[in-house]
Specification:
The chain has 342 residues and is of the alpha/beta class. It has helices at 35-38, 65-78, 94-104, 128-140, 229-236, 258-269, 291-299, 309-321, 326-333, and strands at 5-11, 18-21, 26-29, 47-53, 84-88, 105-106, 112-115, 142-143, 146-147, 152-156, 159-162, 167-168, 177-178, 186-188, 192-194, 209-210, 218-222, 243-248, 273-278, 302-303. It folds into two domains: 5-210, L-asparaginase, N-terminal domain (Rossmann fold, 3-Layer(aba) Sandwich); 218-333, 3-Layer(aba) Sandwich (Rossmann fold), CATH 3.40.50.40.
Length: 342
């Protein structure tokens, strides 16, 4: 007889945990200890659900690395007691948060499924129920007494994605997320279907390693036509700056103006890491394909390949926090660590 999976539901904040107070007509935070009263369908799942909530739930706009560490601490504390984890956060920063958590856990062999909703759990037309029920169901699935999923994922509107491949694409549609350069890990319809060829293989008995040092002094610099020296210089001369996500055009192209190249070169020589990611939703940086990206390659800008901006930011913060030697940093960043790039 297969034992029932134990799933820990972690509520950090966000729309999914809101219900309407019909007296005041305002939204208030839902008590997740009463989750089965609000969603009785959860009683039909073949698992045991435990809940924990942030004492003061936060809006996704206020999400930051301090809360990433808090989520990681909760999972680490309960890792040996639970078979899987479902993390509820606000959707606006969910791709940033779930990407970061994917890097903070090494040798993860249990599911960490992020989900949320576009409408509050108490709304008549809410998407919260389906997202929550299926996320828990996925986290609870086992095969041969091992979890089906052994990585950080994001489940939303019938699709299961690798978390560090996602980006939020809509503020209004229920289908709010996409994984532009990597196929879904699974889809929910009449049946739950998994794409076995891209699922991370669960390797039991590997010791979980938890990383909690996250560098704060990192920025995103998005290029636009007419960007001038003063603007770029003001960003690259931020005190104690450690890293830059440079959002370039197309396949990694950028201005060839001398002032621009010289500013980047000067910062790279000061051991500030600069990552080239494309502004395009789909596709990859191809360093050196055009003259306009070859300049960046020559001065040592790091190739972000097909990584998302959200994942690049998380990976950069994580790797700087790990004190990777400067000589090894470029190669380490350009190597997939958690399936975040092709």
């Amino acid at each position: 007889m297969t034992k029932k999976s134990k799933i820990l539901l972690i509520y950090t904040g966000g729309t999914i945990g809101m219900v309407k107070d019909y007296e005041s007509n305002a939204l208030k935070v839902f008590n997740f200890e009463q989750i089965k009263e609000k969603i009785p369908e959860l009683n039909l799942l073949d698992c045991i659900i435990y809940t924990v909530s942030f004492e003061n739930p936060i809006d996704s706009s206020n999400m930051n690395p301090k809360y990433w560490v808090k989520i990681v601490n909760i999972i680490e504390k309960n890792y040996n007691k639970m078979d899987g984890f479902v993390v509820l956060t606000g959707t606006d920063t969910m791709s940033y948060t779930s990407s970061a958590i994917s890097f903070m856990f090494e040798n993860l062999n249990k599911p960490g499924i992020f989900t949320g909703s576009q409408l509050p759990i108490g709304d008549l037309r809410t998407d919260a129920k389906e997202n929550l029920i299926t996320a828990i169901q996925i986290a609870a699935i086992q095969e041969n007494n091992l979890p089906k999923i052994g990585e950080v994922c994001l489940y939303f509107e019938y699709k299961l994605y690798r978390a560090n491949r996602t980006t939020k694409i809509s503020s209004e549609q229920f289908d709010a997320f996409n994984s532009p350069n990597f196929p879904p890990l699974g889809e929910s319809g009449v049946h739950l279907n998994f794409n076995k060829s891209v699922l991370k293989k669960v390797v039991p008995n590997k010791k979980l390693i938890v990383r909690k040092k996250i560098e704060a002094n990192v920025v995103i610099l998005k290029l636009f036509p007419g960007i001038n020296e003063q603007v770029v210089q003001s960003i690259l001369e931020i005190p104690d700056l450690k890293g830059v996500i440079l959002e370039t055009y197309g396949a990694g192209n950028a201005p060839t103006s001398k002032w621009f190249i010289n500013l980047l070169k000067k910062n790279i020589q000061k051991n500030i890491f600069i990552i080239n990611v494309t502004q395009c939703v789909y596709g990859s940086v191809l360093s050196g394909l055009y003259e306009t990206s070859n300049y960046l390659k020559k001065i040592g800008v790091i190739d972000g390949k097909d990584i998302t901006t959200e994942s690049a930011l998380a990976k950069l913060k994580y790797l700087i926090g790990e004190n990777i030697p400067v000589k090894e940093f470029k190669n380490t960043f350009e190597t997939p660590l958690r399936g975040e790039m092709s």
